Amino acid sequence: PISWYPAATGTAISTDGEMFGTNSTGTYIAGYETSSGFQKAILWDVQNSAILAIPLPTGSTDGQAMAVSDNGVVVGYCGSFFTGYVGFLHIPGQGTFELSSYLTSLGVTNVGDVGMPQAISRNGRYICGVSGAFPRTSWFVDLGSAQTSVSTPVAVKAMMAYPNPVSRSEEHTSELQSPCNLVCRLLLEKK
C-alpha cells in the first residue's frame, strides 16, 4: 500500500497488505499487512510515518482494520471465510473488543450478526457493515451518546441493501457497488 499526498509523492506503508479507510483529518489510515502468512490489522500514523498494530480479540490470528474515526477508534473484523468473521472495535486506551460483546455489555439485546464492520463515522457514533455469514445483510449501529464510551447505545438495526444503479468501470464494480459500501456510504453521509 502507498500513502499518496497532493505533491504527487508516495510513502510505502507496507510491502504486503491493503489500506481501506482514512479518518477525515488524514492522520490515520486503516488496513492490514501480511506477516508470517497472517493478516494483521494496522493503522498507519501519517504524522509519525509509523505502523500501529491493532491487537485482535483473544484467539484471532487474521484481521483487517476497515475504518477509523477522527479520535482513533477502529472498526474491522477478524476470522476467515472458513472460520467465520467476528467484528471488532478498538478504542485507544481501552483495548480491542468483539463488537457483539461490546454492544451486549452496553445493554443492547438481539445484537445479531455484526461480523464485518465496514465504516465508522467521524465522531465514532455510527458504525455500519454486513453480517459475517451468508446471506449477507447490512446493519447500522447508532451508539447514541455512548460514542465508544460506557453508556447505552440507541439501537442496532438490520436493513436491506440494494445494488448501486450507477455504472462503474469493471475493476471498480464489485468493490464500489457492493451493498455494504453503498449503505455505509449513504448512512455516514446522511449523518
Which features characterize this protein?
3 helices, mainly beta, globular, 191 residues
Describe this structure in words.
This protein is mainly beta. It contains three helices and 14 strands. The strands form four sheets. It has a four-stranded antiparallel beta sheet with strand order 3-4-5-6, with no helix packed on it. The longest helix is centred in the C-terminal third of the chain and has 12 residues, at 179-190. It is globular, with a radius of gyration of 16 Å. 37% of the residues are buried. The model is unreliable at 3-8, 147-155 and 159-180 (pLDDT under 50).
Number of strands: 14
What overall geometry do the principal axes of the alpha carbons give? Answer: globular
Unreliable sequence segments: 3-8, 147-155, 159-180
Q: Helical content, roughly?
A: 10-25%
What is the residue-averaged pLDDT?
77
Report how far apart the termini are: 29 Å
Main sheet properties: 4 strands, antiparallel
The secondary-structure class comes to mainly beta
Q: What kind of assembly state do the chains in view correspond to?
A: single chain
The tally of helices reads 3
Concise synopsis of the structure shown:
By secondary structure, this protein is mainly beta. It has three helices and 14 strands.
Secondary structure layout plus pairing:
Elements: E1 2-4, E2 10-12, E3 17-22, E4 28-35, E5 38-45, E6 50-53, E7 63-68, E8 74-80, E9 84-91, E10 95-98, H1 99-105, E11 116-120, E12 126-130, E13 138-142, E14 155-159, H2 170-176, H3 179-190
Antiparallel strand pairs: 1-2, 3-4, 4-5, 5-6, 7-8, 8-9, 9-10, 11-12, 12-13, 13-14
